[in-house]
Amino acid sequence: MTMNKVSSLFNTDYCIRIYLLGEFRITHMDGTDITPSSAKARCILAILALSENGEITRNRLTQLLWSRHAQEQARTSLRQSLSLLRRMLHFEENSFFTIDRNRVYLNKNSVWIDLHEVIHNSTELLGSTLFNSPSLSDLRTDTILQNLKIHDPAFDDWLQ
Fold first, then answer.
1. Distance (Å, rounded) from C-alpha 70 to C-alpha 146?
2. 16 against 94, higher pLDDT
3. What is the structure's pLDDT at 5?
4. How many angstroms separate the CA atoms of 145 and 129, rounded?
5. Residue 91 vs residue 52, higher pLDDT
6. Contact 89/104 with Cβ under 8 angstroms?
7. In its UniProt record, which GO terms are filed under biological process (predicted)?
8. Coil vs helix vs strand at 64
9. Which helix (H) or strand (E) holds 30?
10. How far is C-alpha 152 from the geometric centre of its chain's CA atoms?
11. Which comes out higher in pLDDT, residue 87 or 79?
12. How far apart are CA 114 and CA 23, in angstroms?
């Protein structure tokens, strides 16, 4: 299988790309890195990208990311992180990231997620001799979310 054939397996018609394999990062479709500087904001997006349906309750986010804080302080911190994500993702212009009173949503049909593409195309990739090349073998063995360390026991347990 040629590199062009492998590239054609991956849909590129998305406004943002979320990379979970190796180090977590987010890019615009033009390649510009838009990864939030805040570790908690990155964690929120990673949790949404890895969730089954792209949504999670605000309460669960506070439990995962601020488990050692008082409930009111955790809620305030969550609001600050969500506000940062709204600004960074141009909330008003995009429908892929939605926040309401109780939940946070990521429309996973509107964003490209590397792990989902690998899973979706695994049969063709695994049968390819190109998959044994060093760059793709790294993809198979890298851990997920290597650079997301927030030192919260609840998040660490979830990540395992």
1. 28
2. 16
3. 45
4. 27
5. 52
6. no
7. regulation of DNA-templated transcription
8. helix
9. none
10. 18
11. 79
12. 12
Task: Give CA–CA dist 108/129, Å, rounded.
Answer: 30
If you average pLDDT over residues 65-76, what whole number do you get?
95
Model-level pTM? 0.72
d(CA 160, CA 156) in angstroms, rounded, equals 6
The mean pLDDT value for 63-85 works out to 95
Q: Where are the domains of the chain?
A: 3-159
Higher pLDDT, 115 or 72: 72
Rounded to an integer, the average pLDDT of 22-42 is 89
Backbone torsions φ then ψ of 80, nearest 5 degrees = -65, -45
Lookup: tokens for 117? 């593409």
Buried b (16+ CB within 10 A) or exposed e, 26-53: beeeeeeeebbeebbbbbbbbbbbbeee
What single-letter DSSP state applies at residue 27? E
- Sheet strands side by side (includes 55-57): 55-57, 103-106, 97-99
Residue 97, φ and ψ in degrees, nearest 5: -130, 115
| In the block, residue with structure tokens 């940062």 | 84
Structure tokens at 129: 């001799």
**Residue 92 predicted with pLDDT over 70:** no
- If you ran DSSP here, which 8-state letter would residue 143 be given? P
Give, as one character, the DSSP assignment of residue 93.
G
Cα atoms in the Cβ-side hemisphere of radius 13 Å centred on 20: 20
Q: Higher confidence at residue 148 or residue 4?
A: 148
Amino acid present at 48: L
